[in-house]
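[09:14] KT: can someone run the structure on this one? pasting the chain below
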Amino acid sequence: MKHAIILHNPVTNSSKEDELDVLNQAIFIETALKQLGYSSQRAVFDLNTNDLISLIKKSEASVVFNLVETINESGRLSFAAPAMLELFKVPFTGSDAAAIFMTTDKIVCKTILSFNKIDTPLWAKYLSKIDPEKDYIVKPISEDGSVGIDDALVIPGNEIKEIPKGYFAEEYIHGREFNISIIGGKNKYQVLPPAEMCFSNDYYETKPRILGYKAKWDETSMEYQNTTRSFQFKDVDAELIAELKDVVGKCWEIFGLSGYARVDLRVGTDNKPKVIEINANPCIAPNSGFVAACNEGGLTYTDIIKRIIADTNQNEPGI
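[09:31] RB: done, structure tokens below
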């Protein structure tokens, strides 16, 4: 029987919802692996890599599922897990260390997007670059899952007094938000059905239309209950949807993504897509946007894991 290791960041009693969600992902993967004829075990990633490498070697695992999103409760070093697996030539799922680093650091990501002529909202790391005539959202540079995001961080440019360390200011586009998932390898990939995040007109009439932390993780909140995902579009959106999918495919190629990813975009009054975030190795819990897009595209839960395994980063075996 083939064996897999599910590698994830530590989870404690004090972990927040976004960190605890990795356990939902692990259960999802374990169920599919069993159906695919794999045995599996979980392993926690920390910076004491000797013990982890020893565990992987003894297990004779054919693949490691890399679910590591944070180290010491921060996303800044999330690239360390795939970097370690690459160093010791361990086959693992998802994107490689370079792609994880380039997409996790929002400033690096936006710089690369701009260099490749992919539209992204204006951004500023320093006050001197703020346009006082525009609205901004102040966001963490290296966190995913809407960590640290709430309404209070949407601020007119002329009211921004400082940009905290570890944050940057991104132009707030008051418009539509889309997320589009992709599955595949570096050379061949499938853009899945686009989803639009719909904000209730009544609730969001006087609020910023953003996917903050509550909207993503707090099921009891008004934000969560008034934000829905839709895969249904009108004929008038056909040209926009085609453009969104084209942009997402370019992002996959530019950043050398593999396995699975999700690209988040905003569309303002000019009807032009602007990339706000690229998520390599996004959440694959059963209720996640990525899994919903896969299901919409006709892939079952088991199909998803089978496809991700097929596009494993194939390092030469041996530790």
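[09:33] KT: thanks! The mean pLDDT is 89.
[09:34] RB: yep, looked fine to me
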